[in-house]
Structures are given as structure tokens and as C-alpha cells.
Design brief:
Two copies of one chain form a homodimer. The first copy, chain A, has 16 helices and 27 strands. Chain A is an alpha/beta fold.
Chain lengths: ~625, ~625
């Protein structure tokens, strides 16, 4: 480290991954480190207590290096790559139906007659003639890179070569023909080496799959934390970071570097050569997509929230720094608006919402929180600004869904003792989004908190106590945790979750009313999100996040964005659908909508101020209350 | 210079331009320099006489630097930029007719409503909507570069921008629509700044024109020696040079550097900003085109002479190192075969051969020497390998058509004294191609040489003498020249010219017979070549280079390649024609054709072994002979 350098920046530069939810503004307190040896100069904020400060705890982002240092990074400040190997079961892998297996990428093998004085057509003419004769292909456009390697490939392959052609995402208008693009030529017959990449570029994680286009299956998958996380937890912080000199470039490189790590791992897993990857489809929210493409997301954050484009032309993946052959194009999913991105379009296409008459409510639960209402005839969408609670942000002991995160919690109504489950079954380290929902539902059902989210007074348990941030419930004692500290949930945390779920539910209500239906009219509810595979539906209904409908109407699809990216890699039909879906969606801006604000305020209750919105939950809670009070007295 | 370095390479690296016709193999003797101070180590060849060697004359390519040097470069070894400002009159600027003024590049100005919460479409959607409303443009494809600069351009221009769209050269098939490509967006109204570049990339010179697409006129033109000349004079030497490590790259950069010089000068002349250039069309022979695009021309030189492609996809000009905006595409003219290139196709399109029923003979006289026979219904073409004599190569005092080159010569039949004319009217420095034709015709008509090209014995003039290379005629005495040496034409030179003209004429005969017509059937003869504007038709017929037809059937078009490049910049119709013309031409390979060899041998006479081929010349020569012999005796 250089003297005078910012400690967070120095750590990032050295490849150490520290959380910094607020992007280094000093307001979140997640980048705390312990300076064990050496000197730093720190601007102290209220995020560091006296006790902590005395122990050497500093906010990395607020510290400048004054000498050589030994720094300890507490477990809860570390970004770890642990959750990755957990199996993500997708209940219904293929919700989209009726699509033909027609990958946008095709391989054609041709055997050509060698040139002679009687037939000395150019290499390219010879190849085109062969393709026409063998496959009736005649309207190819040709990438210059193909011309560059053609003479060598033909002679190395002894006039037997394999051509890769790509169909662009834009379906031509009636009467026009599709014009495939010749993007590669390889010596010999390489038809059996025919792979593509599907990616979900999330704000928090980047998930990839390596696909075998011959067999239509997933050969490998991997996932890593988006390297941008060290520059800020949510899109708004990252957009702000892009406004610094060189900020956009840094964020772009961070994403690209993560993508490269994921590719590397998948290639190793599947023993596939990098050069045989022929295509790449990426789905991400509008901000992630723009940053990946090197497009300043500045105006996404400013009223009236305009993205640069809803669809982006394909771009050479290697020109962005992605380590694949120069012939590989990166396709991005089209977006609807600044806060309804390609990830949502991908989820809709992947889950086939646009194919059915079924009135569907689609929700992607996350920091942003996008919802879609509609069916094959129409679709309306909105973004709800739920805040980071579902991903562990803004929660005292919140962490992303990684090993050691409490993801499940039952509370005994008699003893008021918790029974917690963690990801990986290890000792607890913090609380992730699904854990938070589970805990709050449990506290509510056990009568520890009221429907207003406040702790009930005078409960017969020492787990409820007054902490530094007000009332709190101890989920795990210091001796039971990885961190060596009590893990608690505070009234402030509960309030944050209530705001998040209120935003989602209010969005759902506002959008439904806007299109003239009620929440109970939904015939199907599709839940997406990296988070989606762990969420407990019943408890989510209990706290008022999901509408009070019969459980059988709910479907989990896990990472919908990745699902759609995979399926469109297999089917040009679905790739065409993606563009149509993006165009057919009507976006409702909720941020300045009065109804949304009213609905939001009404939803700041467990499950809701209007009991009629959650009839079953209200009945159940009333029964419990009666039982508890009967027993207690 | 570094010790041990090759002297020619060191000079090139230092920016000194020395001829090296053979590309540094030591066989041509054109790179002679005089070492005045310092030491070199030289491999001596028979190109340096004892007298020269004693004076310090060395072949630069055969010398290694041993110490610091002072080197004098004789005037005849220098590549100079002198001939350039000479006016090139083109008898008929526009031979192609009936084309509409429809440049492939278009500019569209739109005024857009700024975004609001009620209308927060993406920047790109807003732009496309505007283009649709104002111009009914709806099927644009969009370059990624446009997306990259869009947000800034819209806001800098206060929602008033100018879009540049390009139509690709490929005319879609019936039923398909053309799909223009949006390549640029600029703030404000820039419709009045609307320029393109037309280039002829010749083996010897590179000629450019800066075009104003609003007014359909040439704003500036310039020309420079192709920087590749220092690596070899003809395409074969350069292809050989490409096989050295880094050779292709060096040649490519040399051409690009020359192009950049020409662009620079034209921009200065016309006071045009580089950023307002929107397009670039280049015509060149197949080897020049491939080298410019960075494509190894290796197989052009090897049987069966296959180019990489007959047409090349457009490529980003700046990606090749050409100093224009990143949005500028470089279009190259399609070629017919390895030795019938885009320059010929350009000449045919520019001169409108493909538009008329007139049976036309088109010849591009140069080192390669391409010929085309045909009309709007059919076309046949061949390349004749004339050799470098027409460009001054292989001629003892031959130089390219630069200042001081003898370009014209009359010989008094009585005194046998010459009356020479030089380019620029300066003291003579050497002989260029048109001079050579003029001199040989003069020597023949004055009876100094016979129809076999040999000097007649015992002539009453001291100008005919025995030189180091055999018999020679002194055109200028040492005291009258720039070089301080006698300028002579030798029997070997005459022989070389005869071989060159025999190849052209034999090509013409062979091709004509091949398609079932005679040389006298041509209704029009179009002569192209940088050389074409100086050639004396009558004398060319006299020596048997051009067919013996009435003079009014001949038309000069000067640089046909540049003419076609310019016209296609003005008209998409003609751009479409270029592709059709390249496809309709049937190429005859003459290099292994027995008839061609027979015709060639028969043409090694002045004007021809068969007097019947040149009835008018034969009659005139017979009359002269009689007159001379009458006078002489």
C-alpha cells in the first residue's frame, strides 16, 4: 500500500474483497476492518462505537494509510465465494413451451474442391459456393474476421472447414428474409464443438452457464459475486461511482473480470476449449447492462430516468475484455425502462408468461424489485425500489445468501426460543433475505412482535432486550456464532423489511388497479430472484410480501434472468420473443405516483393495515393470538 | 543508424525514400547510394561497375552499416513527390451515365421532444421515433458506436441531432429491403458538413479525392507515392516481402501512412474537419487491396492464383490505422481475380462500359496490364503481366512519371538528333513510360532501329554507340542532365518495352479470339492508367501497343480506378453496378495459355510480325523507309 492511499481502495487494488454497500461514502458501516499493526488516519463516523474504535476497528473507506499495516478483515465484512456450489433446484426448468430447438448459432461443415487453374475462384467464393450447394445458404453477410482467417483455415483443413453462422435477434419484417452472419471459419469438422454462454449479470452476483448447443443442455455452471460490489451495493451507488473520473471504466472492468472468472471455472469444469465458444447471451438490469457495455448510466438516476437504449446492438465480446474468441458476439436482452431491465424480460420469456392466456403476476424480488402483470395479450410492469433488505442490506447483521447465513427460523411459541437453519449448515454468520422473512414471520406468529412490527413489552425471555439500536431479539449467542458476537434482529431491521415488502406489495396493488384487476385475480404468481429458491411462500404471505392466494398458484423459477438467457440460446424463436415482450410491456413509473404512496403507507403493517387484503393470514393470526392469550393467562 | 544495420532498412526507418525495385534483393540496382564518409560492408553485385565502386557507389540493400555515415543519394535513386501538382485533364469526366445522385451516405436532421415523466422513452427509442416521423425511416440497423455517443450528442445538441446512415454495397434480392446502418450521430444540424473520400491505391501511387456529397463535387485532390515502393516496385516483390516476419504489417502500415498523408493534405486544401468525413471508398488491384486490409496475399502469387475474396465486407477505416472517425467504413471495390482487381472494376463502372451496347476494349496500362473486352451484355477480362517497363522499371535510365522524366521525344530523320520534352520542363533525369514509347516510335520512324528493335549499323551519328549494356542511343549528354551523366536508351531497354507491349497486344488478341471477335471490331477503346493522360496514341499504335484503329475510337480516362471510386461515392446505383460488373466478368488466365504465348512471340516486333495486324502503320513505315533510303542514297 502507498502512504496516504485510501484503505478501501488499496484493499480493492490488492484484490481483497471487502463489502462497501454505500460505495465508500462512509454511511453504511459494512467495510469495517481491524487495524492490528501500523497507523491509519480515520474520519470517524457514528458507525464505529467507542468500544470498537478502542479495539482498532475502522471504516476502511474513511481511512488513509500512514504506514505499513496489518489489517484483519472481520468475517462479516468479507465477500466470500461460498454459496456457489449449493444446488439450485428449479421446480420447473422449462416454463416457456412450444419453442423449436433452433439456436441462433449454427455450424455448417463443407468439403470443397481444391482450387485448380480451371477453377481458381477466390477462397471466399469457393466457400460460399460450397455452402450454397450443401445447405442452400445464400444470403450470408460476412464478418471481416472470417475473411482474415479464411485462407489459413481452408488450407489447414485441406479444403474441409466448418463455418459458424449467427442469426441476429431482430426478426425481419414480413417479406424480408433473415440474413445470417458468418462469424467464424475453422479447419476440419468442428460440429461437435458447439458451445455458448448464458449469463445473468446481477447487481450482487454474476451467474453463468456453459451450454452445449448440440445436445441442448447445460454443461457447467458457475457463479461469483459481481466484482462491482466493492464499489457499492446497489445500482444507485454504482451509478454515482460512475460519475467519478475513471469510475465507469473501473466498474465495467470489475464486471468483466468476474465474468472471466466464471467462464474460466466453467471451461475447467466441462473441459471445453475457450475457442469453441461461439456465442454469448447476457441478461441484466438496465444499469448492469449499460455499465457492462461501457455506457454511462448517468441518466438512469436522474428524472425522468431515461436509459440510453431499450435494446443494444450485438457487440464483440472480446472488445469489452471478455476472454472469448474475437468472433463471439455478446447479445444483451432488451429492456423496458431504466428500472425494468433485460433480466425481467428474460425472466418473462423464460417462464413463458407471454405464451399463455393465464393472468400472471411475475415478481423478481431483490433490491430493485420488479413486477409484471399480464398474459399473452398484454403486460404491465413497474419497479418498486424495495431497498436492499431482501439481499441483507440495511440490516444490522444482514449478509447476502452465502454460507453461514441464517435462511430459516422457527420460534417456539411457548419458550420463545429460536430454531435457526443456516446455508451450508454452519455456525451462523449473519442473516440473509429469506432468513429475514422467516424470522419476522416467526416473531409475529409467536407474538414477540405486534402487527406494527414493534416488540411486545414484558415477554418472558431474555432474548428480547434493549440494544444499541433499540429493542432487539437475539437469534444466536456469541458463543454459537462465527463472528464471536451475538446475532440479533432489531426493530430497525424489522422496519426496513416492512418497508421493502410494503414497496413490493404496493407496487403489485397499484399496477393491478392501474390495469383494472385485483390482486386476488391472479391465476399464477411466478417468483424469481437468486433468492427465489429459498423463500418460504407461506411466511412471505404472512408478512404481507406476497398476496394472500392459495399456495398452488405460486411457482418458483429461481434465477429467471439466467433461465431466459439459457432458453434463448437454444431457440431463435424465443430470442425474437424477447424483443416483442420488451416492446409489449407498458411501464408504470411508481416513484411519483400518489396511489403508490398511499398503498405503500397502508402496507406498512404485518401483513397489512387492511385485514381484508390478507383474509387467511388475518384469520390465522387472530386464532394464534387467541390461543396465546388463552395459554398465557 | 545502428551498426550492423542494413543500409536500405536504416534509410527507410529514417524516412529517407530510396527506390528499391526488387525489394532489397540486390538484383535491380536502383537503390544505389554514394557513401561519402564512414564505413559499410557490402556484398558487391554486377550492378555496380568498377568505376562506380571506386567512387563509393554501393547498393544500399547490400550494405551493412559499420560506422557513422554520410551518404549521398543520387537524384535517380530518390522517390520524389513532384509530379503531383500536374493537372490531369480527363477528356470525359463522366462516361458512366444515367446514374441518380444517391450517395450511399445520408444525413438526417431531427428535432426531438425532450424526455419527460410522461414520455421517458430511452434515448435510442426517441431518436428512432423521430427518424420515423420525419423521414419514414424504420429499418435501420444501429452501430454500437452510435449507442456509445448517443446520450451525450442528444444533450449537447439540446435534442437536435444529425444522424448519418450508410447503405451497404450489397443490393438486397427482390422482395428484400435495403437496411441502412446508422453509423454516426452528431449534436445539432451538421447536414452541410457531409464529405467522403475516394481513393485509388496503386502499386506505385496512391491518389485521393475529397468529395462534397452535398454538391456532388471534388473539393480537393492529392496524390503521393505508395510508401510500399521502398519495399519493392511491383506486386510480386511485395507479395514476397509479405512472407518475411512482420513484412505484411510493414507494407500495410506503409500504405496506410501514405493514405493518411494524402488525407491530411486534402483536408488542409479544403479546410474540412477530419471528423466530418463520413465514408471512404477505395479501389485497388487485388494485391494492394489485400495488403491494405491486412490479408496475406501469398496465394495470389502461387498457382492457381487464388485471392482470399472477390469482395470484402466493409471494415472500420480507423481499425486499419487510417486517421478518420471511428464511424467511417472503408468500402473496397470487388475484384474479379488475383490479377484483375477492384481498380479495373472501378474503371469499367466509372467509364460506363457496362451501360452501353458499344463493343469496348478497355485497357489499364501498367506493370500488370489488365484488359477487358465487352459491353453491357458480357465482359471478358485478362491480365497480361506486361512488366514494369511502362512505369520506367527495368529500363536503364527508367524512372516513374516524375519531374525531369523524358515523356516525349521527336527525332529528326535527317540529323538523327532528338528533341526531348520532360515533365515540368526541367533538365532530364530519366525516362518514364510515355517517354519510352515516344522514343522507340521515334527511333523506328527515323530508321535508327529496325522493326526487330535492333539498332541499324553504320548510322551517321555519334549518338548511337556501344555502351556497357550493348548498343545505345544518347538522348541527352551529361552536361544537359540533372544526373550529370548521359541519358541513353539501350537495345536491352527497347527489348523490354517490346516485351511489355507484346504482352498487352497478345492479351488483347487472345481475349478477342477467345470471345470470337477481331481487334478491329472494337467500336471504342478506353485507355486508363495514371499513365493514360500522357500517352501518345499514334506512337503507341506505331510500336504495336494499341490496335491499329482510327484515332477517334480512343478515349482516355486517366485514372479510371479513381474515377469509379468517386462516382460510386455519389451514387448507390453505381455501387450496386460494381458488384454486378465484378460478377459478370469472365476471367481468362493467360499465364499458361498456349495461344497467348504464340501471339506474344508474334508481337515481339515493331509493330508486329504480321504486318496485316497493323495495316496503316505498316504502310506508313514502308513510305518512310522508302523516303529515308531515297534520301540516304
Amino acid at each position: 500500500m502507498e502512504q496516504g492511499e485510501n484503505l478501501l481502495q488499496a484493499a480493492i487494488a490488492a484484490g481483497v474483497r471487502i463489502y462497501a454497500s454505500c460505495g465508500g461514502a462512509g454511511t453504511c458501516g459494512t467495510c469495517k476492518v481491524v487495524v492490528e499493526k501500523g497507523e491509519v488516519e480515520t474520519t470517524r463516523t457514528d458507525k464505529v462505537s467507542d468500544e470498537e474504535f478502542a479495539r482498532g476497528v475502522r471504516q476502511a473507506c474513511q481511512s488513509r494509510v500512514l504506514s505499513d499495516l496489518t489489517v484483519y478483515i472481520p468475517v462479516e465484512s468479507r465477500l466470500e465465494k461460498a454459496v456457489l456450489s449449493r444446488e439450485q433446484k428449479q421446480v420447473s426448468e422449462i416454463l416457456a413451451t412450444g419453442w423449436r430447438f433452433t439456436p441462433p448459432l449454427s455450424k455448417y461443415y463443407v468439403e470443397l474442391p481444391p482450387p485448380s487453374m480451371a477453377d481458381n475462384a477466390s477462397d471466399l467464393s469457393r466457400l460460399l459456393r460450397g455452402l450454397k450447394q450443401s445447405y442452400h445458404l445464400s444470403n450470408l453477410s460476412i464478418d471481416f474476421e472470417v475473411v482474415r482467417k479464411l485462407a489459413r483455415a481452408l488450407r489447414d483443413g485441406k479444403w474441409k472447414v466448418t463455418v459458424t453462422a449467427l442469426v441476429t435477434a431482430v426478426k425481419p419484417r414480413a417479406g424480408d428474409r433473415r440474413r445470417p452472419r458468418m462469424i467464424n471459419v475453422e479447419p476440419g469438422d468442428t460440429r461437435d464443438k458447439y458451445y455458448s454462454l448464458a449469463f445473468d449479470i446481477g447487481t450482487t452476483t454474476i451467474c453463468g452457464q456453459l451450454l452445449d448447443l448440440n445436445r441442448g443442455r447445460v454443461l457447467a455452471e458457475s457463479m461469483a459475486y459481481n466484482g462491482q460490489a466493492v464499489y457499492g451495493e446497489d445500482v444507485i451507488t454504482r451509478i454515482a461511482y460512475c460519475q467519478r473520473p475513471g469510475g465507469l471504466k473501473k466498474l465495467q472492468q470489475a464486471a468483466v473480470s468476474t465474468i472471466n472468472d466464471v467462464i474460466e471455472e466453467m471451461l475447467t469444469q466441462a473441459r471445453v476449449d475457450r475457442e469453441h465458444i461461439g456465442h454469448m447471451i447476457v441478461a441484466g438490469n438496465t444499469t448492469m447492462t449499460q455499465i457492462l457495455l461501457g455506457l454511462d448510466p448517468k441518466y438512469i438516476r436522474l428524472t425522468p430516468y431515461t436509459p440510453v437504449a431499450n435494446f443494444f446492438p450485438p457487440v464483440g465480446a472480446s472488445s469489452l475484455g471478455i476472454k472469448v474468441g474475437a468472433h463471439v458476439y455478446l447479445f444483451t436482452f432488451p429492456a423496458v425502462a431504466s428500472y425494468v431491465g433485460g433480466d425481467i424480460v428474460s425472466g418473462i420469456v423464460g417462464s413463458g408468461v407471454h405464451q399463455r392466456k393465464t393472468l400472471t403476476f411475475f415478481m423478481d424480488i431483490g433490491t430493485n424489485g420488479e413486477i409484471v402483470v399480464g398474459n399473452s395479450d398484454w403486460m404491465a410492469t413497474a419497479s418498486c425500489s424495495a431497498g436492499p433488505a431482501f439481499e441483507g442490506g440495511g440490516i444490522k447483521h444482514g449478509i447476502v445468501a452465502t454460507e453461514g447465513a441464517i435462511e430459516d427460523c422457527r420460534i417456539d411459541p411457548s419458550s420463545l426460543e429460536p430454531d435457526i437453519g443456516t446455508i451450508g449448515g454452519t455456525r451462523p454468520k449473519g442473516i440473509c433475505g429469506s432468513g429475514l422473512i422467516s424470522i419476522v414471520a416467526g416473531l409475529l406468529e409467536a407474538g414477540i412482535i405486534g402487527q406494527n412490527g414493534k416488540f411486545n413489552p414484558n415477554l418472558p425471555t431474555k432474548r428480547v432486550r434493549e440494544g444499541s439500536d433499540g429493542a432487539e431479539y437475539v437469534l444466536a449467542w456469541a458463543s454459537e456464532t462465527q463472528t464471536g458476537k451475538d446475532i440479533v434482529i432489531t426493530e430497525v431491521d424489522i422496519d426496513n423489511l416492512m418497508r421493502a415488502k410494503a414497496a413490493m406489495y404496493a407496487g403489485c396493488q397499484t399496477l393491478s388497479v392501474g390495469v383494472g384487476i385485483g390482486c386476488c385475480d391472479f391465476e399464477q404468481v411466478i417468483i424469481a430472484g437468486a433468492f427465489g429458491s429459498h423463500i418460504d411462500i407461506e411466511k412471505s404471505i404472512t408478512i404481507g410480501l406476497l398476496p394472500d392466494l392459495p399456495l398452488e398458484r405460486f411457482v418458483f423459477i429461481g434465477n429467471g434472468s439466467l433461465l431466459g438467457a439459457r432458453l434463448t440460446s437454444f431457440s431463435t424463436d424465443l430470442l425474437d420473443d424477447a424483443r416483442l415482450v420488451a416492446q409489449m410491456m407498458t411501464n408504470f413509473e411508481l416513484s411519483e405516483n400518489v396511489d403508490f404512496m398511499n398503498n405503500y403507507v397502508a402496507a406498512l403493517f404485518l401483513p397489512h393495515t387492511h385485514a381484508g387484503e390478507f383474509p387467511n393470514v388475518s384469520k390465522r393470526l387472530a386464532r394464534r393470538k387467541k390461543a396465546l392469550s388463552g395459554k398465557g393467562q
